[in-house]
Amino acid sequence: MEENIKLVKEFSHTPEILRNGVKAYQKKYVYSDMSIKIIIFLLISAIFVCGIVMDFFKSDKLELLAFLMSAACLAFAIMEWFKPKKLRDSIVQSFIDEGNSPVYRLTVKEKEIEIAIVSEIVQEKSSEESENDEYSDEIPEPSIISIDNNLSIIEEDKLFIIAYGKTVYYIIPKKDFSQKELEIMRSIAK
User: Residue 57 — pLDDT band, cuts 50, 70, 90?
Assistant: First the structure.
């Protein structure tokens, strides 16, 4: 028996929507963990710096080790700071390198959401590459997300983010949604 279908919508991404969507997801789920790690690294670094300052007048061989540990903690803090931006730029760059965006289909049912690729990006391949690539024309199976307590819908100005837990998320642009469809999207996780 087919479940009640509330909404079926096809969409594709632009680099701007993708960048904004990844950034919104990171604000909600990544930045808090990142901030905690940065604070911990900076505190550890400060402890080592205090140790260096206090032992400045003593001739202790641990001063070099404390200096190196402080520098390492600062380096880790800086890496944590830039990691989300690097990931966001990497996702957008891979999207731009692919060329045209694939078309996706969003299907909202009573108890689940299905997101499927409708058409792949068409890339020119040499005949030798096509012969060696058995799966070149296959479209992956649709992703099915249960509507339960792990699902959250984040609404931004130009997009929705469907997040399942903290690791799975989908960016849905709003540009072609009618008012009724927007209301369906808003009511999913309530």
Answer: low
- Complete DSSP assignment for the chain: -PPPEEEEEEE---HHHHHHHHHHHHHHHTHHHHHHHHHHHHHHHHHHHHHHHHTTTS--THHHHHHHHHHHHHHHHHHHHHHHHHHHHHHHHHHHHH-SPPEEEEEEESSEEEEEEEEPPP----HHHHHH-TTTTPPPPPEEEE-STTEEEEE-SSEEEEEETTTEEEEEE-TT--HHHHHHHHHTT-
Residue type, 185: M
Percentage of the chain lying above the pLDDT 90 cut: 29
User: How many Cβ atoms sit within 10 Å of the Cβ of residue 172?
Assistant: 21
pLDDT surpassing 60 at residue 149: yes
| Residue 94: per-residue pLDDT | 81
